[in-house]
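Annex B, item 7. Sequence and C-alpha cells for protein A, then protein B.
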Amino acid sequence: MDDVDAVQAQIAVNMLHSGHWVTARLDGVPYLEKPPLIYWMMAGSFKLFGVHTWSARVPVVLSAIALCLVTAWFGIWAFERRRAGLYAGLCMATCVGLWLFTRIQIPNVTLVLTITLTMWAFLRLMEDDVKHPRWWAVLIGVCFGTGLLLESLIGVVFPIGAWIVYFALTKRLFKWDSWRRLHPLLVTVVMLTVAAPWHILATLHNPPYFDFTMQSIPGQWHGFFWFFFINEQLLRFLNMRYPRDYSTVPRYLFWLFNLIWLFPWSVYLPTTFKLGYKPVDRAGRTRLLALCWIGFVMVFFTFSTTQEYYSMPIYPAMALLIGSGMLAESRAKRWGTRVLTVICAVCAIAAIGILIAVRHVPTPGDISHDLVVRKTYRLSLDHMLDLRLDSFAYLRFPLAMAAVAFVIGAVSTLRTKWKSSYLGVALMMVVFFQAAHTAMASFDPYLSSRPLIRTLKASPPGKLMIDHHYYFFSSLFFYTDRKALMLNGRYLNLVYGSYSPRSEDPFIDNTQFQQMWKQPQRWYMFAKKSQVAQLVSLVGVDHLYILDRAGDKVLFTNEPVTGRAVEFPTAAEFPGLDSQR
C-alpha cells in the first residue's frame, strides 16, 4: 500500500486515534482537498477489524459489490426481463474499468453507486403508479448528501444534469408536474441534513469563513470555504487551480478509452443502436435516461480536466444499455462475438509469444531492474509504459494465466449458444483479473516502501525524514504510524494546508537538513535514487549509510548500525553522483 492508498488510510488512522473527524490531516498538515466520507468509512473498518491493509479496502470492496447488484436489479426492473438485468450486472462486475479503478483507494465507485441509485429512484418517481413516492425522494436526498461527502458537487450535478437533458428531450423541462414528482423540497431537506453539518463545521474550524477571490496563488491561506468550493471545484474545472497536481487525458482518448474500460462487453455496444429509446414504456425511458446520463457526464469532462477514471459514472448506464442489447438475436451481436473471438485469440497468441521470447531471460532481484523509469508520471496509468520486453520475464506466471484466460475466451465465443458464450467470457475475465492481481504484486518492491520499512523496524530507534513529497513515501506513515520531517516537502497536495495557522510544521530546508543530519542523534532518511546526488551534495557521501534499497527507493541513516556492513552510495548505482564527489 503506497501513494494515494496509504494517504487515505493514514488520514483514517489519524482521525480514529485523535478523535478529530472534521479536518483531515497528513503529518499534522490540514488536507482539505476531499470530503471526509471515505476516511470515515475506512476508520469504521479499522475500528471493527483493526488497522490492516485489507481492512482499509473493505469500504471500496463493499461498494463495488453493491454497485454490481444494484445495476442488475435496476436492469431487471427496467426491462422486466431477468436476463437483461443479469447481463447488465455481469457486464458491470467483469468489465476492465471497475476492476482496474477499484485497485486504488478512491471513493469513485461509491459515488457511482449513489448516482445509480438516484437514477433508478428518478425513473421510479416518473411512473404514474409508483408506490411510496416520498421514500424514493428520501433515497435521492440521501444519495445527494452522500455524494457531496464523497466527491462534492458532482454527486449532485451529474444526476440533475442528466435529468434536465431527459426532460428537455421529452419536452417536459418547463412542466412543473415533472419536477413536482421529485419532491424537490423533501430531497433538499434530506440532502442538507446529511451533508451540511460537516461543511459548516469544516468552515468554522478553518477560517476565514468566506472568501471569493478568483486567483489561486501559492503561499496564501483563504480558509476551507475558498479552497474547497472555489479552488477545488470552480478553478479546477477551469484548469486554473493551484497547485497543478494533475494532467489531462486527450479528449479523443478519454472517449475512446471507454471501449477498453467496458471490455469485453463493449464489443456488444452496436447491439444498442437499434433499441427503442422512445419514452413510451419503462424500457424506453430507461434507455433514454441512460443516454442522457452518459452524454452529460462525458460532455462535462470534455470541457474540463480529465483522468482515465473520470468516466466511471457512466459504466452502469453503459451496462444497462449493453445488457438490454444482448437479449435480442441480431447481426450486431453475432459480429460482436466474432470480434471478441479474434481479440481473445490475438491476445492469447501474443501472451504465448512473449512467454517464449523471455523464457531464457534471467531475473535478478526484482522487476525494478528491468523497467524504464521516467522522470514524470502525468496520468493514472503512466507506469504501464515503464514495461519493456525483458520486464515480462518477472511476470511469467501471471502472463501464463492471462494466456489461459484468453484461450478460454476464444474457445467459449466459438460456441453458438449465447448463454454459454457469456458465461465463458465472464470466466475469462475472472481468470484474467487474478492474473493481473498476481502481476501487480510483482510491482510491490518497485512501488511500495514496505521492504524498507521492514528494515527500519529491525534497526535501532531514531527519528524519521523523507526527501520531498509525502506521497512518495506515504506507506512509511501508514505502516509505522509515525510522523516524519519532510525535506523540501511543501509540494503539491500539502502546499495549501501548510499555510494554515493551525498547521504543524514538518517541513525542513537544505540548511536545516545539514544541521540535523550531522547531530549526534540517529536519523533515518527515505529518498528516491534520483535524489541521492542532491543529498550527497548537502552532507557528503561519508555521512550517508545505506541500510536498504527497494526499487527506486533507498533508506539511509546518519550513523553506522552495529552488526551491519557499512555501505555508501556509489556512482555506479546512483545517477549524477560523479559530479558530487
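Protein B:
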Amino acid sequence: MRIPLGLAQLRSCLIALAVTSVAAGYASAQIVISTSFDGKATNNSTAPPDPNAAVGPNHIVECVNSNISIYDKSGTLISNTGNNTFFGITTGGDPHVIYNEIAQRFAIEVIGSLNSSGTGTAGFAVSDTSDPTGTWHKIVINVPGFWDGFGGNGIGYNADAWTVHVNGFSNQFAMIPYASNPNLNYTFYTAPSGIHIGRPVPMTNAPAGAPLYFIEGNSDGINGQGGTTGQLRLMAVTNYLGGSPTYTQQTVQADTVSASVINNCWRDNQLAIIGQQGGLVRWYLCNTSGTFSLLDKGTITPSGGATPDDPTIAISPNGSLGLNYLAVGTSNTSMMLTGRAPTDAAGTVRTPVAAVTGATSNGRLGDFSACVVDISSSGQPLNAFWACNEWLNTTNQFDWRTHLSKFSEPIFEAESLTINASSDTVDTVADSNYSAGSADILRANAVGDLVTYLVPGVSSGTYTVAVGMKKNTSRGTFQLAASRADQNTWSNIGSPIDEYENTSGDYAEVVIGTWSPGTTNDKLFRFTITGKNASSDQFWLSVDYIRLTK
C-alpha cells in the first residue's frame, strides 16, 4: 500500500527529470533506459560476434555468429544453442533474427555454405508460435552464390509472406508465403536487369495484398555502386504470390553525401532508415504512400571524436523513433541509445545515452546490431524499444560481450512518483509487462475517487500527455487534470478515458491530450473517477506511467 505525503515532505522524494544541455541536432530530454543486461559473451574462438536480437511477447531471441540464445525480458537466460545444432547444417555466421508482428512468429536466417563453384545455401527457420522455446520449422534455401558483403542479407515481411535477401550480387531473393505453408516452401526470384533488390523491409502492420519493399542507398554494396549521390531507392514488388512479380522502383534525393542503408523499419506508410557516412550517423524518415518522399532526416555526431558503427533504427506505433549505434573512440567504445518523438523539432534526436562502455577492439567490430519495438504479452507493439549491440571487455577482439537494453522517451513511472493525495488504497502491483515491471492500482469505490501524483521539474511548453495502463474488466473511467504544485488551479487534459476492456488484460498507452504549462516547476497530475462501463465490475484505475512529449 502507498501512502500520500504532505507537500512539506516531498522535497526529499523528488526524482530528477532527465534534462541535459543540448547540442545542435538534439532535442531537450534524454531517453530513459528501464532494463539493461549483458547477453552472450565470447567463446574465445569467433570474432566479431555480429549480434542482433528480436523481441516477442515474453521472450528475447539473440543471435551471434556462433549461437542462438533465448532470454526472458528480465534478462534470465532460458537456452543457448549453437547455430549448427539449431539448423542441422554447417553454418557460416552472419545470422539475422526478426519478430513478425503480423504472423506473431520469430524467424532466423543464417549463411549456410559457399563452395568454390559459387553456389551456396542459407538456413531459414520460423517459430511455430510467438514462443521461441517451442517448435521451429527449418529449411535450407539453395542459391547460386550467397555472400554479397555490404549489400546485405536479411529478412523482411508483410501481411502475406516472408522475404529473404540471399544474393545481392545477382539481385536474388526467396519468398516464403504464410498460407498453408508449414513446410516453408519458397519461390526463388532473380530480378530483371536494372532492378535493384536492396535490404528487405520489415513491414510491421502492412495490410493484406501490400507489396514487398526493398530499400538501398547509392553507396550500398554492389548494387549502389555508381548511383546518384545521396539517393535512396525503394523497390516495390507485387504479384509475388502469383509467380510473375512486378517491380516498381522509386527514388528520392535524401542527402548531399552518399546515402547508405544499414537498417530500416516500416510502419503506417513511414519508412525509417539509418546508415553512416562521413563520421556521422545519418537517419531518414520517408513516406511510402503514393510518391516515395522524404519526411525528415538528421545526423548524430558521436562525442569526443568517436566514429559511429552498426547503427539500427525502429519506429513505434505512436511514430517515435528508437536508434542504436556504437561510438568507437581511441580508448573505449560505447553502445549508444537515442530516439525522437514525432513532436520533436525536425532533424533532432534526444541526447544519446550510453547503455554500456568497454574497450576499443584491436581487431574489427561486427556488422550487425538491432533496434526493435517492444511487444506486450498480448502481442501488441508498444511505444518502447529494445536494442542489442556488442562491447569489448578488453582490447582483445575475441574478448567481446553483447548487451541488451529497453528504452523509451522520458516517462514518469507511477510507482516511483510521490502520491500527493488519494481517496482510496493505492497498491503497487508487479507485472513484467508493465514498462518498468510494476504499476499503481487505485482501488476506487465510487465516482469522485482520485489519486494525485507529483511530477517534479516540468518545464514550460506544449506537451502531448499519454498514460500507460492495463485495461481489463475491473476498470473505471477517469478524467486527467493538471495544476502547478504550489497552486490549486486545475486544467482538464483531454476527455474522460475508459479503462474497461473485456479481456484479462490489455497493456496500452493512451494519448490523453495536449497541455501547455506556462512556467517551469513541479506539477500535479490528478486522476479522478468519473464513472465506469456498464459491464465493468469495479471503479479501479491502473496507472503504469505518465509520458510528457514536447
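Comment on protein B: The two ends are 33 Å apart (CA to CA).
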